[in-house]
Specification:
Blueprint lengths: L1 H8 L15 H11 L12 E2 L9 E2 L29 H21 L1
Parallel strand pairs: 1-2
Length: about 110
């Protein structure tokens, strides 16, 4: 609300959108209850899992993200997570892909 006020004072055209009636806890809670909604973070199309996992995934990957029965193919996205976190997954996916890159480097060095 303060940012909106400052931008209007600086001459930016501000459209009055749905805003809380004030900055008190009651005003903010009321606004959230009336206008809040869930935002889903879709993560994948098909679950991947180890071969012996139940329920099985559509593609099986091992602990180093290698797809079973394929040479030199790894999966590095959120579909390999055993459980999906109830939060935005960008940082988690980036960390996992960095780990995958480390495993690829290690595999190259050891050969």
């Amino acid at each position: 609300m303060e940012l909106k006020k400052q931008m209007a004072e600086d001459g930016y055209p501000i459209i009055n959108h749905i805003m809380p009636i004030g900055t008190t806890s009651i005003g903010l809670d009321t606004h959230i209850e009336e206008w809040g909604q869930s935002v889903y973070h879709y993560t994948l199309t098909c679950r991947m899992a180890p071969e012996d996992d139940a329920p099985p995934g559509v593609v099986a990957v091992d602990d180093e993200l290698r797809v079973h029965d394929f040479q030199k193919l790894r999966i590095a996205d959120a579909s390999i997570f055993p459980n999906i976190l109830a939060t935005h997954l960008q940082a988690t996916v980036v960390a996992m892909t960095e780990k995958c890159a480390d495993m690829l480097k290690e595999a190259r060095v050891t050969k």
